[in-house]
Amino acid sequence: MFRRKIAAVAIAVAAGFGLTVTAAGTASAGTVTQSCLPYSGPRTVNVTITAPATVTRGVPVPVFVKVDGVEPWANSELTAGSARLVGFLRQGGAGTGEIKIDVLNNPATIRTGGHFSVESTQQVAFSTPGTVTLGLHRFGKPLTYWWCSLPADQQPPVAATVTVN
Q1: pTM (two decimals)
Q2: Mapped to the 3 state alphabet, what secondary structure does 84-129 carry?
Q3: Rounded to an integer, what distance in angstroms lies between the CA atom of residue 81 and that of residue 140?
């Protein structure tokens, strides 16, 4: 009850100074299943992307990406934190280009025959106003090979939508 009163007073004071008070947008999140052209990694992955539903152009916001393999992991065991992959999200809709995800890492050990999972949160500043869609275009070790990649001209399935003001 006390916290609600403090919040109400804070909003009243802000409004008194002519400030606009708005609540943060709810997160836009989705999981899509996509097939990959694999070189070494999983053939089918579930991709989850979570981003704020509404953002301000040029202001960095956290974008969470998680990639889960559908088939059992057929390669050798990866100890926790050892995957260290790079990912690229393709923008669609009002957005163009790609967003680099610097490090997709495995929070837990990935055992042979087990569940493949990597994730990361990256600060992203969207530059184009309008509705921007996000999907995973590729991930892997760029200096050696991509674990999962779509053809350059193919738009990935949309896993999140962001409105950029």
Answers
A1: 0.80
A2: CEEEEEEEEECCCCEEEEEEEECCCCECCCCCCEEEEEEEECCCCC
A3: 14
Residue-wise pLDDT for 59-94, tens only, equals 999 999 999 988 888 888 999 999 999 999 999 999
Nearest to 60 by CA among 48, 51, 69: 51
Give the list of residues 6+ apart from residue 74 with CB closer than 8 angstroms, or none.
112, 113
| 115-152: b (≥16 Cβ within 10 Å) or e | ebbbbbebebebeeeeebbbbbbbbbeeeeebbbbbee
